[in-house]
User: What shape does this take?
Amino acid sequence: MFHFFRRGRHHKKKESHQIVDWGSPRWWGNWGSARITQIRKQITQITDWGRPNRTNRSSRKQRFHRELRVGVGIAGATALLVLIIFALAFYGAGALRRFIERSMFSNLIIRLQELENKTPAPATVSQSTSSSAPYIPSSPAAVPIPPSIPSIPGAPPSPNVLYSTFYAGFSGTGWLNTNQTSLYRDDNESAIMFPPKYIVSQLQSAPSAAFPDTVAETERACIAGRCLSRNGLQLFFDGSPLPLPDAVQNKFVAHVSIAALDSKWIVGIVTSDGGQYAGYVFLFDGSAFLPTLDVQGTSNVPAPLVTSQYKGVWGFGGTENDFLAVYGAYDGKAVQIHYSLKTKTYSLVNISQFFPIRVMANGFRPAVIQEVQPPPEVGPPTVISVNQPAISGNQKTWYVFSLTDQKPKFIKLWENGTGTIQGGADLTGSVLPSGTATALLAAAQLDGGRPALFIKATKGDGSTSYYKFIDEGFDKSVARMVVSSNINNYPWSVARAAIASASTGSGAGTIAFALSPDGVSWRDAPVGQMVELNDASSTRLFWRGVFSPSSDPMSSPFLSVVKVESQINRPSQ
Assistant: This one.
């Protein structure tokens, strides 16, 4: 037992000794020395990474070139992808435009649903077939088509009768036979007319003509030494401030325009209210603003002449008895304003149809030249009337151009002897020299009785050239025609059809319309008359219009819309 106790003490002593050895400086010295050696090796390795040894430099160079090649490859691929996307967008835009244009025309064909009620057969006139050259229109008895063909109420069912309505516009050639059409189609006006005829010749020196300036923040308009001027939105008369008319005093004024007519000034004011714009027009006689011209036709209601969702700028031209007020915006508006000395009334005629989006080219500041001035009339107005019948007078041709830099325009308007504008053509691309950045017009003396203008054309580099424009009207040497392509989208033959309506303008001669089931044999189709076309062998329908020339070279029909209604007989199921 004693021995066991001593052995236990002996073992415990050894354990205690070992525990003491773990914390002794000797043990820590051995371990620390090894650890320090290891850390020194690591530090040496870390230090070696930054040393300019040959192996590391070569590795970094190879890595740099490898990454450079990858980066150049990625950049090249990206540039190529961008180029491909740009090319696709460029060519796709043209294709998209053609597709949209075709779709727009396709949408004009309104396929009406099958009738559940039978429609009484409208009166028809059978036409004899005639060849297409030469075309001599006949005069069948006038038989009106029924109004609103598919909606005649109270008829028994007729599941085999379909009606279709086609509207022809002329902003593109999607529904035209361009090989047979010999009339001029104006892209921007979207209309058909005789080909415009004119002479443009370059002058060797600047003519002695008063060209207007492009309009800045300050402008002046003077009559007999007295001047109305504008500085921004403020008016001055003979140097003294002139308050704006009462009708716009409490409104937010966005723009002010001025112009001089014969013995009076004209002031155009554009106001803004919540994103909507209103255009006011006032005459100023040197002492007071004359009664407001407004769409209500009264002199005591301060209403605007035009309203628009687009901000625009007024432009004027003509005489105080017959002038144009053109609102130059993204979608233009215009009014022809007559004043009659006999009746002491104004006549306001809306001619906005001649200033659509395509003509306006995102908007410009318009200016107007009237080619022939009517005899002067004097006297203040007493009553203002709206949309009165056209006032007969001398033949006049109007020209609208742009006072906005980098937006040249040359637009011709004509009246066909009616006293009111009946047609328009945007001749910018054909009259103005190529590369023209800004074009200003000035009236010239008549050339052999023909209207004449001077053109000041400035290119983008600042170089200026001068030209003389002589207007010879239209080429009416022969009869010309417009011919459609097939306008029947049904797989069945057309039984009857009619030119339901056509917008042609007034006072310019006649247009003889015809219809055909095959594009070869034609039946005369006066507007509003149903024509029998039964031809079971053909599922097509064509229309055409023949313009007969009149003796007045300055006039032309202006065909902007044709409406064709047809009846299709579907075979029994």
Observations:
- Residues 1-29, 46-55, 96-157, 373-393 have pLDDT under 50 and may be disordered.
